[in-house]
Amino acid sequence: MSSIVLSVVVPMYNEEAVIPALVERLRPALDGLGVSYEVVAVDDGSADRTAQLLFENGRTWPELRLIKLRHNSGHQAALTAGLHRSLGEWVVSIDADLQDPPETIAEMLHTAQEHGLDVVYGVRSDRSTDTFFKRHTAGAYYKLMRRMVGADVPSQAGDFRLLSREVVDVLKVLPERTPVYRLLVPSLGFSSGKVAYAREKRAAGETKYPLRKMVALAWDSAANFSAAPLRIATWLGAIAFAACIALMIFGIVVYSNGTVIPGWTSLFLAVLLLSAVQLICLGLLGEYVARIYKTVQNRPTFHIGFDSAAAEPPAIPQQ
Ligand code: UDP
Ligand code: MG
């Protein structure tokens, strides 16, 4: 058993602007806990000086560990890397931009230990600092996900959460290639609690979640937990098939009456409609087949290029 009580996993992508403020706030918050801890900073293939700054800060802050991924693998993959390499009895994941207040970690740890919980979610009680667009898309996302996952997915709980070693060990052996932890963790059914916090403004820099990444996360969430999109395709196909039969019967009746069916347009429309339906179905099937393929390939989700806690004396990471 490791002697580290708490691991704090911080995924970072091009976060050089926020590192000074992060260190300034995170360090006293963790030192004040009075327990042994490590900060597992995961540099998600940043193109800026994130790794260098972390490395330099590690000289004066021995608890700060740097893990550098070789290329940008995404927020969830960076979290996976951090979870796999963390050693603590408890593991907290927190955003680098100080939107999740580090002082809340104390309350999370306390709640977990006092009530014997395995998971404590940080729940955003106040999102007024987020954009209108982000607030509303997030609201719709949580509503939909609660239905899809079927487990009690806490609303407004992002990736600021505390996990026990047991939960982390379970997550580590899951063969998931595109994990979405905010859904995966509740679906495991461990005992859980919540701690409310006000979402702060990003301390520096810009969001690393453009619309493209938000859509990718939403699609991962839906496809990981539900075959509903596949079923929609099946229903569409069934409806189109029924319409096709009806049209055939209609055609036969009209033909037996001796009248020639006028209107080639309708025929063409039917052909086009069916082609479209088939293509949609094929596309959806392809999405799932691609996922099976990815899992079967069993490629690592992340590639660690550097770990400052490795036995070999580390070289200063170069971009
Ligand atoms: N992040 C990451 N890899 C990415 C995108 C984001 O590691 O490809 C990190 C980012 O550095 C931050 C966290 O994920 O620590 C959340 O990102 P951000 O604050 O930009 O998202 P937002 O709060 O705008 O949703
Ligand atoms: Mg943020």
TrEMBL record:
The chain crosses the membrane at residues 232-255, 267-290. The keyword Zinc-finger does not apply. This is Glucosyl transferase. It is found in: Membrane. Signal peptide: none annotated. Belongs to the glycosyltransferase 2 family. Keywords: Glycosyltransferase, Membrane, Transferase, Transmembrane, Transmembrane helix. PANTHER family: PROPHAGE BACTOPRENOL GLUCOSYL TRANSFERASE HOMOLOG (PTHR48090:SF1), UNDECAPRENYL-PHOSPHATE 4-DEOXY-4-FORMAMIDO-L-ARABINOSE TRANSFERASE-RELATED (PTHR48090). GO terms for cellular component: plasma membrane. It comes from Winogradskya consettensis. The keyword Transmembrane helix applies.
